[in-house]
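Quick one, tokens below:
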């Protein structure tokens, strides 16, 4: 690794402040200082970036293209500094300039080009790919506006645009030389090819945009490797070109300009809900076509046989969002390289792999044929042909089972089913946690698994310990390193060596003291941002994640209401003080989710201001939960709420971040919780609720009626009544919809997420939490064991599995020569 020279770095920062802003360090404001520091850091890594790509070319290594609509990167500066191991030198340099690194890091807006789990997973994967030395591109969209900023006004969520590029992005490099054209609409005509005499399919009368890439560095840990996150922006193709005017086609020129302007405007803020919007499909094809075209061009610069592209290129589809990639690759092979269908199909099969991230049926992508064929006429033709052949395969495999085609066809009921296309076209289909993969194989995708079992595999998610421990929790990171050395930074399995210290009282005290300091840090953040005073000696019980009914924030807050009632009834009851902390964004159009946010804030108002309970319960809703404040929140948590309805949460990754930071899981047997409990032992977690099998059985037999619980359980009835009797809102209709959803439901399915069913079991688990926390030594041991046993959940482990079992990549060592 190149050493960072402090003096050089200092003068670079001074130079950048001067060149960029015509100012001295003293005159510049914090944002300008951030920009200057960021440019100086980028200068430092650019040699490694170039060396990395030179090495890849020389060794001609296979590359994975991780195609994703979302990359939730968060802030770059602090993470890059950490991965350069430059923390000490840069910190000192900055202090010697009279500045403060924390303040500077705080100026950087989060790169929030994602919604939640799926986007953050992509970001963790890129970090691991670089750290492990695998050749990879992240391919996505350079949204002008990322995930909205959440402001809470009067307890309601208000969305504000996230103008993250306002001051420019110092880390990005525009690469106009790699721009490509992407075509939409028009029609397909058949022309005779002069050379070959064969029919050619040509798209005519289309609209097109220019896809222009911007590259962002992804720095590996202490290894000279810098991979690239390539995000595409759309520009108008030669503005009002003369040709158009000659034909009098002024209208078309304007339309093309508008198309370019709208495509990359904004990230769709829905998580788990398919809306079927035309612009979304445009976004998908836009970045996929650009990425696949570039990957093919790059491959052909060094190779002469397109038929072997699978030897050097793999496209990993992050959910079905980029699935048009398979048809785009077919188009390029068949239309541009004149390859016969069967051969093109085999090449495509060997090049594409698909990851499924949810079984929620609302999220499954299905596009109306009318829309699809109008927007992407040639791609649609190709999918029709893929479907025609796939249906024949199904009929051949199951000649007597007519239901199979109905359930498995790619085109059916007037829709294109993207998951079916991804499964038929790829060589690998993976789920993201063991339980999730089993549910895919045995329930959701049963027919596909029966027909093509060899494609199915599991890759349990992971997280990067570099961002979520080394950067987010420096005190604990230092403690761990002091005890066991620093191997854990690149090989998290080593963290198990901490286990022996759980029996050492001094170590436990040190560990809990660090937790306390992190709680003080979060308490300060809460005071500054919410104006609420919280007691860092109370139990910090945290649920941070997107707001969705299946994640059951409602169960959590109903339980708070219940506890509050208990305390009011019985003020002298022994009760360990608790701070219930929430953070969650709701999709702008998801009304019930927004009501749940309002409910949390209304309960907070009442409970926090009730002197009679002596501050024993506090409720805090942290505004604008995002990657940067997540780092602070995980570090300070005692209890990790992972309470989704069993079978619904594919994996979860927040659960792993909490575990790493020594929080104990309070959860259902869902997603990766199952594997967390397996690692840490069930005596070191608090598990409750229905199993996924039980949930699935109820869903099939319809035998669950929440009214039975309402009628027999007075405490639950009291809590539900408080939703509509004015206890938490003078507007009696404010929470009526929530109330109805639990008792009446829509379409005859009340309490779809089994909140009342699991309530008692949850409350009882919460009592176990309180009792365990009161036993300080016991809790310290549990918490510390959670950190010690989380080795499996590094994204380095996940990426090694993808690299070995799906992508077949080789590791690269990078030497910097300049
Ligand atoms: C789905 C959709 C549906 C169409 C409209 C826009 C849109 C945007 C995002 C999504 C993603 C939903 C899937 C998702 O985020 N799944 C989460 O993936 C995590 C990483 O694998 C996993 O830990 C979570 O359990 C899972 O919910």
């Amino acid at each position: 690794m190149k050493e960072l020279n402090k003096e050089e770095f200092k003068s670079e920062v001074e130079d950048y402040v001067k060149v960029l802003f015509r100012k001295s360090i003293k005159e510049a404001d914090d944002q300008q200082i951030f920009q200057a520091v960021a440019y100086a850091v980028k200068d430092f890594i650019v040699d490694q970036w170039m060396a990395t790509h030179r090495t890849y070319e020389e060794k001609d290594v296979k590359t994975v293209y991780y195609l994703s609509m979302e990359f939730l990167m968060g802030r770059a500066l602090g993470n890059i500094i950490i991965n350069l191991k430059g923390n000490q030198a840069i910190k000192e340099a900055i202090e010697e300039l009279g500045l403060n690194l924390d303040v500077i890091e705080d100026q950087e807006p989060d790169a929030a080009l994602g919604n939640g789990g799926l986007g953050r997973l992509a970001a963790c994967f890129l970090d691991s790919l670089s750290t492990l030395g695998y050749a990879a591109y992240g391919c996505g969209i350079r949204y002008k506006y990322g995930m909205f900023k959440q402001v809470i006004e009067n307890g309601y969520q208000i969305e504000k645009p996230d103008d993250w590029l306002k001051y420019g992005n110092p880390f990005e490099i525009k690469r106009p030389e790699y721009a490509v054209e992407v075509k939409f609409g028009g029609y397909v005509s058949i022309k005779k090819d002069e050379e070959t005499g064969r029919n050619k399919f040509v798209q005519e009368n289309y609209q097109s945009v220019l896809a222009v890439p911007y590259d962002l560095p992804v720095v590996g840990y202490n290894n000279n490797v810098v991979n690239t996150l390539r995000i595409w922006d759309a520009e108008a193709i030669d503005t009002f070109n003369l040709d158009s005017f000659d034909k009098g086609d002024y209208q078309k020129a304007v339309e093309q300009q508008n198309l370019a302007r709208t495509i990359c405007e904004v990230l769709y803020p829905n998580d788990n809900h398919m809306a079927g919007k035309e612009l979304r499909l445009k976004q998908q094809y836009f970045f996929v076509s650009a990425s696949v075209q570039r990957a093919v061009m790059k491959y052909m610069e060094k190779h002469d046989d397109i038929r072997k592209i699978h030897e050097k290129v793999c496209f990993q589809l992050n959910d079905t969002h980029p699935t048009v990639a398979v048809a785009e690759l077919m188009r390029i092979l068949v239309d541009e390289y004149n390859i016969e269908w069967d051969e093109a199909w085999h090449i495509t099969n060997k090049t594409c792999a698909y990851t499924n991230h949810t079984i929620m049926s609302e999220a499954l992508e299905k596009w109306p044929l009318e829309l699809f064929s109008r927007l992407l006429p040639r791609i649609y033709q190709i999918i029709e042909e893929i479907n025609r052949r796939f249906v024949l395969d199904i009929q051949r495999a199951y000649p007597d089972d007519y239901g199979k085609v109905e359930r498995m066809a790619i085109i059916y009921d007037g829709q294109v089913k993207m998951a079916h296309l991804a499964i038929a076209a790829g060589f690998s289909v993976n789920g993201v946690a063991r339980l999730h993969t089993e549910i895919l194989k045995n329930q959701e995708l049963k027919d596909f698994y029966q027909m093509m079992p060899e494609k199915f595999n599991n890759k349990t998610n992971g997280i990067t310990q570099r961002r979520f421990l080394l950067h987010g929790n420096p005190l604990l990171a230092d403690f761990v390193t002091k005890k066991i050395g620093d191997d854990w930074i690149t090989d998290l399995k080593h963290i198990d060596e901490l286990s022996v210290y759980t029996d050492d009282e001094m170590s436990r005290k040190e560990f809990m003291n660090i937790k306390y300091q992190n709680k003080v840090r979060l308490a300060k953040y809460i005071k500054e941002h919410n104006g609420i005073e919280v007691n860092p000696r109370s139990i910090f019980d945290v649920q941070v994640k997107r707001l969705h009914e299946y994640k059951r924030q409602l169960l959590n807050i109903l339980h708070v209401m219940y506890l509050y009632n208990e305390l009011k009834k019985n003020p002298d009851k022994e009760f360990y003080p608790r701070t219930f902390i929430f953070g969650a964004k709701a999709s702008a159009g998801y009304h019930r989710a927004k009501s749940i946010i309002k409910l949390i804030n209304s309960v907070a108002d009442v409970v926090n201001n009730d002197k009679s309970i002596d501050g024993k319960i506090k409720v805090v809703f942290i505004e604008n939960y995002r990657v940067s404040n997540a780092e602070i929140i995980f570090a300070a948590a005692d209890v990790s709420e992972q309470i989704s309805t069993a079978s619904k949460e594919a994996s979860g990754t927040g659960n792993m971040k909490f575990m790493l930071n020594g929080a104990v899981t309070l959860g259902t047997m869902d997603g990766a919780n199952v594997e967390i409990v397996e690692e840490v032992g069930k005596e070191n977690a608090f598990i409750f609720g229905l199993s996924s099998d039980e949930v699935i059985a109820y869903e099939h037999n319809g035998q669950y009626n929440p009214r039975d619980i309402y009628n027999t359980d007075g405490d639950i009835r009291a809590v539900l009544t408080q939703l509509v009797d004015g206890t938490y809102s003078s507007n009696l209709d404010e929470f009526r919809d929530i109330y109805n959803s639990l008792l009446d439901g829509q379409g005859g399915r009340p309490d779809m997420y089994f909140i009342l069913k699991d309530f008692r079991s949850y409350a009882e688990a919460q009592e176990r939490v309180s009792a365990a926390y009161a036993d300080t030594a016991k809790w310290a041991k549990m918490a510390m064991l959670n950190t010690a046993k989380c080795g499996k959940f590094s994204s380095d482990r996940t990426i090694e599995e993808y690299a070995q079992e799906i992508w077949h990549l080789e590791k690269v060592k990078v030497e910097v020569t300049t």
